[in-house]
Amino acid sequence: MEKKEKYLKEKIDRTVSKHEMLRQGDHVIMGISGGPDSLTMFLYFLMVARERGLFLHAVHVNHMLRGEDADSDQKFVEKLCQNTRVSLRSVRFDCAKYAKDRNMTLEEAGRKVRYESFDEEARRIVSEGADEGSVKIATAHNLDDQAETILLRVLRGTGTDGLAGIQYMTKDEAGFWRIRPMLDISRAEIREYCEEQGLVPREDKTNEDTMYSRNRIRKELMPVLETYNPKVREALARLAGSAEEDRAYFRNAAEDAAARAVTEIGEGYLILSGKVLRELPGAVRKRLYVQALSELGFKEDFTYAHLSKADELLRGDSPSAKILLPHGFYITRRYEDLKFASPEAGQQDHAPSGLDVSIGTPEDAAELLKRKKGKAAAFDLKKFREKYGESAEERLELRTREPGDTISVRTGGGDSASGKQFGRKKIQDLFVDRKVPKDARDEIRYVTCGIDVLFIPESPWAGLRAQYAADLCFGENTKEVLLVETFWAL
Hints:
The protein is α+β, with helices and mostly antiparallel strands. It has 16 helices and 20 strands. The protein is elongated and about 100 Å long.
């Protein structure tokens, strides 16, 4: 084993051991582009596969962006794997078309499809009997990538968590571990190793294009910083390690706070107690915002500015203000609390979707109201028909609010015979009095006859108890009852 090869192997071994990346018998899926970084990682795993009992698999993605160069990269990787008897999943996809169809940047589209391809290979391995925890997806991020990532985030206005940079190990959305064993190796060390071994890796010419921010940092900013500190990469890596320790501490504190702060979790949304949030230190509170958004699937593209706006929302005067986030996510005030929601958080799933109307006895009414408390209503049929006409029950409908909707309420004065005991209340005023969140009001469905509201089923997600038309309630002299039952789609 030559000097540089031995040095590099020992250095990567230390990283792998320190972060407990591998276990005996693991399946390692290597993302191989054919460039210096991934080729070096590939050869490292070939060296240690026998001693560690590893099963090696490779994935190459041809983004079809560089014409013949991309095809040559693919052939290079296919020949490499064929010569070393490593199984290969080779994927071709039109990155430009994919990005355009989904309104994404080329970088975002490429990253998404690469990791989807890694996960597909991981699922294949699991389907053949491997334990999910034994499958590791290895990418060749190096020390320079770490330094450039931190600088890029600083320039974009990151919070302190962003200073943690690229992590040595993370779990992806599919549940598989991603490992980065090369993260302590510099690009210069990789090139020296390739030269010593007489390797001729593929070169991606787009890495020279300063149109991309990361390339500008590498080619223009980093050389300037090196005049101040020749070991600026190592210094930034130490900063990342320190920031990660702080992030882990505050993340645990936020998880503890979540146990007190989360008051409600629904389909595509969750609500945090404003009272608890206001008591938390800012560092914990903002991380709780991040955790709430991550729980809903919003894990990228939010910035410190978004977190600051959430704080402004919490402390502002408006009880129903709202801020919009990328990808359709949003945060809104619910009086004192904050609601975090995904694009799929439409309240329709919580509101009734159907209506059943029938006629029965007071005994039937008692049984129904007990069985479907808050989701059914019963009215004096005679009163109902005297007010709305014969067969008016056929005109009942389940809908959301419209201008002019009112419901009968008790006024507390007069006698029932004269009818002065009842008045009409606008649904808008009822919602305000009951502190129904503004973003929920248009989603609540209720039973109406024209603009008269007869029954509003309970809506716990909106903080609203069931409401009934007071002038139609049945009593001891009622002989027939109009039964109204709402139901929810499965």
